[in-house]
Amino acid sequence: MNSTAPLYEGKAKKVFATENAGEYIVEYKDDATAFNAQKRGEWAGKGATNNAITAHLYPLLEEAGIPTHFIAKLSDTEQRVKAVTIVPVEVIVRNVAAGSFCKRLGLEEGESLGRPVVEYCYKSDALGDPLINSDTAIALGWASEADLTRIRELALKVRDFLTPYFEARGVRLIDFKLEFGKLPSGEIVLADEISPDTCRFWDAETGERLDKDRFRRDLGGEAEAYAEMLKRVTKEV
Ligand code: C5P
Predict the structure, then answer these.
(1) How far apart are CA 154 and CA 156, in angstroms?
(2) Do residues 189 and 69 make contact, with C-beta atoms less than 8 angstroms apart?
(3) Which value does ipTM take for this structure?
(4) Distance CA 138, CA 128 (A)
(5) Rounded Cα distance, 81 and 8, in Å
(6) Runs of H (alpha helix) within 28-173
(7) DSSP secondary structure letter of residue 148
(8) Best mutation site among 92, 194, 213 for ligand 1, i.e. most ligand atoms within 8 A of its Cβ?
(9) One short Pfam family name for this protein (predicted)?
């Protein structure tokens, strides 16, 4: 556990500086929030589960040609990462209609999409992460056109790797959110986490939700669902 004050504290993670200016330590917390922190909760083991899932997936994504900030898992709840400047644009990739996409467009959850949909949101707690388009991000200086082209390319590459990876483990990857960072060299890398907090996972056979919608929608069984996802993610097939 770190004793110094975090550089940044988010809803589910803290980021600490290290003795090495090029590296941070990320600590995953047990806190859960939804609807822009209007709903709050926590359960024991959530941070450790999300840390373990992310620490398992990021090296596999690296092997698949996606550069990431991940260096190593340090403990149950901590990982060492490369220090990046986070691009304040959250990237959502959708395989299947669900969540805010259905609300916005009047669709039934579960409708397959003809092709993956990439959406951008402005990363702002104060504004509730509003949907934007790439012109907005470029005009307001949040990312360059070249950065966004690369971010979209990497986001779709993550989708192309993860969708069959989860399918082989009995899970439909419905949608997910990514964040990207910039290294001092200017290189864009995948940052943040990939976990049941940031993805929708539906059991391929039963349709059971194995993600944060259990918490958001008061379905119960969130700890069990997250533990099940850790089992599936780390399963050799
Ligand atoms: O709510 P919505 O349907 O837009 O969410 C799409 C995907 O992005 C879901 O997998 C959700 O968990 C994730 N997401 C997230 N953080 C946000 C908004 C959405 O991880 N701030």
Answers:
(1) 5
(2) yes
(3) 0.99
(4) 20
(5) 14
(6) 46-63, 99-105, 134-139, 145-167
(7) H
(8) 92
(9) SAICAR_synt
* 67 burial type by CB count under 10 A (0-12 exposed, 13-18 middle, 19+ buried): middle
In whole angstroms, what is the distance from residue 120 CA to residue 135 CA?
Answer: 10
* 71 class by beta-carbon count within 10 Å (0-12 exposed, 13-18 middle, 19+ buried): middle
- For ligand 1, atom 3, the nearest C-alpha belongs to 99
Helix (H) or strand (E) segment spanning residue 175:
strand 171-182
Residue 1 DSSP SS3: coil
Quick: pLDDT tens for 128-169: 999 999 999 999 999 999 999 999 999 999 999 999 999 999
Q: Are the C-beta atoms of 91 and 179 separated by less than 8 Å? A: yes
The ligand 1 atom nearest the CA atom of 101:
3
pTM: 0.98
- What distances in angstroms separate CA 94 from CA 30, 155, 176, 231, one per listed residue? 26, 11, 7, 23
Residue to probe by mutation, ligand 1, list 36, 119, 198, 200, most atoms within 8 Å of CB:
198
Question: Distance, CA 103 to ligand 1 centroid (Å)?
Answer: 13
Structural contact between residues 91 and 142, judged by C-beta atoms closer than 8 angstroms = no
How far is the C-alpha of 157 from the C-alpha of 64, rounded, in Å? 8
CA 117 to chain centroid:
16
